[in-house]
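Postdoc handover notes: sequence design on the structure in folder B. Input tokens:
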């Protein structure tokens, strides 16, 4: 069996919408874990992975169907603790000799449950539930149509809910645990404690810390890169900044960053990024002033997808141009994060439509004959921020809101002009200044101004104005996949509108965008 530095937990994914959250909770407990889709897990894989415990996720399928996805039966023969969640519980019961029945979702008489439920303990004491119940019942979140109707031999009931007599079940002699609810979601408020008990039972030492990650990542980068050169597209965003700082710590001068100014950056952004990395971090940064190239090619273009595709193509051309100037560059560094990795491998139910073509440098390495270095592949965004702090990046960089690669182009719906971009930069600067002054920056996931392609009539100082309208956007989100508008006070909105209209020539009307995602998207294009 393979030897690994850390205790490893394997999450087998059956397609639940919330599988990532299982990993997230375990990370908080300093447990190293990986998510793998069920159809990639076989005996050879299990031997190589050498899990110290296994979690079977939820999923949309029904074990009642013959073609339902299943793990190899050997997951129950490895002598390691197994936790089944929802579909995972149903699988365990089905595979270990219990019974599962299809539920009626509507029409009465069914045992389907969606939403909040309360479980109460069915035994006096158990390692799994130790310290979990703050009162005599604990809130959990259910989302299932099928239900377990008979538990497998060797299992007992540890907890029940009004509609789920087998809410929490266990075969404590084999350390098999199976629950109908989802301990990983926020609506199971004390879910972390539940996982803490499971990993204590499994004997994890909690050795997955950011400091250990940093040391190992540095060793890995050195071993991969050797004496070659690495280039890195640096945006000043959190991901590429942390990736660059880490690689710089590993291989120093062998790293060259290319920061592209496409003319679509925010006010003072180019100077801030270049100064910060050259002067404070001592990084080699090529400032690629490609404003004319990008703005020239975007002239007269108003279709959102056309604009995005032009920008994507020019990014590739520019990276190619600078890479050619760097001798023996063999690697391209990217700030790929764990959610990006999972999204591309996860079990998915069907083809999905393209809402917008996110600019992406993924197509680059092959074209340029480069290999990828992705030192953040195993981290979530908030973990990247922790790592950035450890690497000494200033807080102002670490806490930055995400900024999209196509920049202000997608905040200027319709045709882009230099004049509109200048107005937008000023308005955005005032808005962000307001948010900072009111101490709201860190509560908001992302905030920006979009300049609208309409001009409206106003009256200022008894004179008529005919200027652009703009929309303020501010959202809360966990991962950018869903979002809600931020509930600013009316005072804040009023004060901000006044400041923008007074301080930014070219804008005479301010609106606040209160669309959530879905149905909207965060950016306007
Ligand atoms: N102006 C730019 N110059 C060079 N590379 C860029 C630029 N904008 C984006 N990139 C590249 O595209 C990648 C993806 O952009 P993305 O916005 O997702 O990440 P980020 O900018 O590093 O972080 P954040 O999500 O916090 O903005 C970046 O990691 C970077 O490599
Ligand atoms: O690097 C990027 N390249 C892109 O092309 C791109 N488009 C959107 N975004 C960012 O992604 C998140 C979700 O945005 P949407 O709701 O608008 O799709 C938000 O954080 C957006 O800012 C991008 N980031
Ligand atoms: N959330 C789940 O894992 C659901 C499991 C199964 N598809 C059911 O409806 O019962
Ligand atoms: Mg960015």
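Designed sequence:
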């Amino acid at each position: 069996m393979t030897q690994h530095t850390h205790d490893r937990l394997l999450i087998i994914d059956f397609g639940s919408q919330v599988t990532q959250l299982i990993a997230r909770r375990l990370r908080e407990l300093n447990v190293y874990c990986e998510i793998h889709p069920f159809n990639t897990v076989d005996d050879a894989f299990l031997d190589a992975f050498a899990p110290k415990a296994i979690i079977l996720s939820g999923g949309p399928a029904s074990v009642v169907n013959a073609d339902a996805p299943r793990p190899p039966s050997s997951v129950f023969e490895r002598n390691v603790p197994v936790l089944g969640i929802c579909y995972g519980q149903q699988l365990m019961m089905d595979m270990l000799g219990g019974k599962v029945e299809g539920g009626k979702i509507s029409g009465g008489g069914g045992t389907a449950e969606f939403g909040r439920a309360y479980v109460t303990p069915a035994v006096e004491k158990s390692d799994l539930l130790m310290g979990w119940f703050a009162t005599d019942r604990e809130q959990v979140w259910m989302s299932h149509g099928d239900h377990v109707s008979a538990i497998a031999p060797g299992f007992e009931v540890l907890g029940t809910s009004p509609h789920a007599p087998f809410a929490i079940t266990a075969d404590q002699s084999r350390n098999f645990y199976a629950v109908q609810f989802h301990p990983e979601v926020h609506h199971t408020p004390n879910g972390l404690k539940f996982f803490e008990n499971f990993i204590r039972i499994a004997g994890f030492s909690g050795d997955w810390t950011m400091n250990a990650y940093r040391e190992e990542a540095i060793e890995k980068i050195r071993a991969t890169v050797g004496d070659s050169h690495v280039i890195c597209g640096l945006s000043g965003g959190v991901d590429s900044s942390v990736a660059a700082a880490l690689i710089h710590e590993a291989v120093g001068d062998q790293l060259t960053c290319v920061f592209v100014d496409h003319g679509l950056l925010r006010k003072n952004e180019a100077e801030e990024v270049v100064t910060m990395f050259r002067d404070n971090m001592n990084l080699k940064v090529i400032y690629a002033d490609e404003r004319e190239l990008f703005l020239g090619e975007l002239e007269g273009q108003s279709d959102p997808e056309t604009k995005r595709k032009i920008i994507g193509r020019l990014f590739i051309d520019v990276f190619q141009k600078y890479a050619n100037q760097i001798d023996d560059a063999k690697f391209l560094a990217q700030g790929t994060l764990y959610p990006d990795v999972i999204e591309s491998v996860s079990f998915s139910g069907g083809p999905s439509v393209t809402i917008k073509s996110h600019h992406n440098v993924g197509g680059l390495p092959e074209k340029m004959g480069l290999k990828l270095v992705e030192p953040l592949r195993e981290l979530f965004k908030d973990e990247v921020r922790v790592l950035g702090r450890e690497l000494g990046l200033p807080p102002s960089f670490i806490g930055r809101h995400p900024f999209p690669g196509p920049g202000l182009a997608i905040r200027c719906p319709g045709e882009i002009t230099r004049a509109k971009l200048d107005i937008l930069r000023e308005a955005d600067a005032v808005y962000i200044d307001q948010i900072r002054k009111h101490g709201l920056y860190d509560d908001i996931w992302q905030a920006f101004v979009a300049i609208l392609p309409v001009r409206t009539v106003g009256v200022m100082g008894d004179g008529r104005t005919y200027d652009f309208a703009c929309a303020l956007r501010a959202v809360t989100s966990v991962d950018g996949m869903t979002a809600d508008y931020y509930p600013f006070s009316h005072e804040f909105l009023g004060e901000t509108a006044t400041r923008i209209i007074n301080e930014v020539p070219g804008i005479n009307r301010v609106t606040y965008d209160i669309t959530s995602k879905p149905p909207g998207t965060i950016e306007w294009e």
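Context for whoever picks this up: Residues 346-351 have pLDDT under 50 and may be disordered. Don't rerun without checking with the PI first.
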